[in-house]
Amino acid sequence: MDGGLAHPRVLEHTDRDPQKPIPQEAEVTAGCRVEPGRSYGFFTDTTLCIGCKACEVACKEWNNLPADNLGMTGQSYDNTGRLGAHTWRHVTFLEQDARATSMPPFQSNWLMMSDVCKHCDPAPCLEACPTGALFRTEFDTVVVQQDICNGCGYCVPACPFGVVELAKEDGKAHKCTLCYDRLKGGLEPACAKSCPTDSIQFGPVEELQRRAEARVTDLHEKGQPKAYLYGTPGAPGTGKGLHHLNAFFLLTERPELYNLPPAPARPARNARPSLLSGLATIAGLAVAAALVGVGRR
Amino acid sequence: MSARLPNTVPQDWQGETYHGRPVVKASSFDWKVSAYIVMLGIAGSAQVIAAVARRQPGSAGLVRRARWLALAGSMVGPLTLVQHLKTRSRWFNMLRIVRPTSPMSLGSWLLTGFGALSGATALGAWLGRRWPLAGRVAEAAQGPAALAGAGMSIYTASLLSSTSTPLWAAAPAPLAAQFGTASMAGAASALALVQRAVGEERSARRLETLAMLAGAAELLAKRETESRWRRAGIAAPAKEGAPGALLQGGGTWLGLLAPIAAHALGRAADRRGGRAGEVLPELASLAMILGGAAMRHGVLLAGNESACRPRDAFRVTQR
Ligand code: SF4
Q1: Are the Cβ atoms of A278 and B102 closer than 8 angstroms?
Q2: Which residues form the signal peptide (chain B) (predicted)?
Q3: DSSP H helical ranges for chain A
Q4: Is the minimum distance from the CB of A245 to ligand 1 under 6 angstroms?
């Protein structure tokens, strides 16, 4: 029997228990096995995004996240607004001036991008976390352990991308886990699996990076010279102590238009100059105190 | 340095934002955190003063009071800080790991050590009146307590600077100097008040001199912090609204210029045998403590405000 468009491995499981997942199902849906010890991430190609928000819905469904904004923002089709404690995928919409007749191919006059936690390397939220609730998993992703977080909130201002947030309901920090539970079960993360255009691709980071480079070359050849990567080593979105982002993007406009900082910095870099200057100050004042004769009657 | 954008996209950022939405998230830090910063700053610097004063003849009273002040601060401060946790019952998870990259983690350990050492100095000296061994423990603990105290006086600035909040991250070194000088000015002022209350006026005057010097140094540090904010184009939140009032009116005028002038006036009046020196020094010391608190709370609020301003976040991440 021919499987048609289906992955050949699907045929191995035609008589399986429908309640149980296919072992290493990611091989079927994303073309890669999920194995501990390798780096996994997302390559989000904004030139393919159609703004359907399937990723947002799939994320909320799988992770049991409550809705947090049922109103209209008036900001194009973006009624989600922001990433937050209950929103781990957020599709940004920006309408551009150029009309359809004058626009370059592969991107309408809308800029749409499915934003997500970048699973940075190194991760500023993790570097800030004093309890060890934030940790790096065996898949090289960054996850908050809910049974350890005590809601100090220090990861929130630490994140250079405004991703992680404290939930009012339980007083703990929440963010994208890159579907840690699904990865453990060999499944592709929910957002990537649901993306109908493959704008969100899941896989081992080096392989995604190679694929992304090829996609940029391809787009340049096809007449979209603005395509570039954000978050691969040496690209915008890295440097200043951030080596690379496990969830990275292909963009066609300045990063600010997608609400991304062009050159974010690793915040922990500031600790050393601050501590040195502070201690020098106190040492100087201690000398001053001795000279003034503090303590003498 | 971060990589350049491709030449095909505009090279200069024209101030565009994504629908004016914030780029980074503001911290949840509120007055409880500011109160902790102030209390532990004063407590920490009090230990530094105790260590310096110990060498002087006739300093026993001041040293004793400085140690008790430090112990009080290291007891009350953490109780205030724990109130800020959103899951308070898990405060002890702060001591679950040591994270060298996190000033909050290092600070938790430093605070623990500082509290223990402050207890050793204050209680040791007290018990030392009956058991000489306890007294020797107190003396041995004084040096480490002062070192930990130096850390307590300033690490809170590193904690704020090691974030992606534009205003806090833009001036790490001068901000720490500002916090350190304010801690020392606060501790010297608090101890001057105590010394005046127990009638050790000459000792109080030396502390007031120290407070004036620290205040003058704080003015310099503040100038540098503000000029860095200005150069980065992110100074607005520190000038407007409540944070602006706290920083300029509270921190600078009430906390530095007025008390320094008042101390100077008091000295002049004293020298002429006048009466201006009667309550003026006390008022000036009080103003310095309150001003230090206003400055810290102003920095905290201005930082939270700056995190909500997408242009500020983009300005500090251009190259
Ligand atoms: S994007 Fe923010 S929350 Fe995600 S790993 Fe990086 S610092 Fe942490």
Answers
A1: no
A2: none
A3: 26-29, 54-63, 124-128, 155-158, 180-184, 190-194, 205-221, 271-292
A4: no
The answer on whether A32 is annotated among ligand-binding residues is no
DSSP-H helix ranges across chain B = 31-53, 60-84, 103-127, 132-161, 166-169, 172-197, 201-232, 241-244, 258-271, 280-307, 310-315
A125: its two tokens: 């939220």
Give Cα B82 to chain centroid, integer Å. Answer: 18
Q: What end-to-end distance do the CA atoms of chain A give, in Å? A: 101
Residues of chain B neighbouring A131 (CB-CB closer than 8 A): 90, 93-94, 96-97
Share of chain A above pLDDT 90, in %: 82
pLDDT at B298: 98
pTM of the model: 0.95
Question: Could you tell me how far CA B135 lies from the centroid of its own chain?
Answer: 30
- Residue A80 DSSP class: S
H/E element holding A89?
strand A89-95
Distance A267 CA to ligand 1 centre (A): 12
d(CA B66, CA B189): 11
The C-alpha atoms of residue A146 and residue A142 are separated, in whole angstroms, by 13
- Chain A, 12-71: which have a CB under 8 Å from a chain B CB? none
Query: Out of A158, A163, A252, whose CB is closest to B163?
Result: A158
Q: What is the ipTM of this complex?
A: 0.96
Can you give the residue ranges of every domain in chain A? Answer: 40-67+78-95+112-271
* Touching A: B residues 148-177, CB under 8 Å: 150-151, 153-155, 157-159, 161-165, 168-169, 172-177
**Chain A residues with beta carbon closer than 8 angstroms to that of B24:** 157, 159-162
CA–CA dist B314, B5 (Å, integer): 15
Q: Is the pLDDT of residue A193 over 70?
A: yes
Number of the ligand 1 atom closest to the C-alpha atom of A124: 7
Tens of pLDDT, residue by residue over B108-152, are 999 999 999 999 999 999 999 999 999 999 999 999 999 999 999
**Residue pLDDT, tens place only, B286-316:** 999 999 999 999 999 999 999 999 999 999 9
- Residues of A (127-156) whose Cβ lies below 8 Å from B: 127-133, 148-154, 156
Are A257 and B176 a contacting pair at CB < 8 A? no
Contact B156, B37 (CB under 8 A): yes
- Partner residue opposite A256 with nearest CB, options B17, B172, B179: B17
The pLDDT of residue B270: 79
Residue where the block lists tokens 């909050």: B104
CATH of domain A40-67+78-95+112-271: 3.30.70.20
- Successive 10-residue mean pLDDT values, chain B, 319 residues: 83 95 98 98 98 93 97 96 92 95 97 98 94 95 98 98 98 98 98 96 95 98 98 97 96 95 88 72 96 98 98 96
- A249 Cα–ligand 1 center, Å: 15
CA distance B316 to B319: 8
Q: Between chains, do A161 and B24 touch, taking CB under 8 Å as contact?
A: yes
Antiparallel, parallel or unpaired: β A228-230 and A247-251? antiparallel
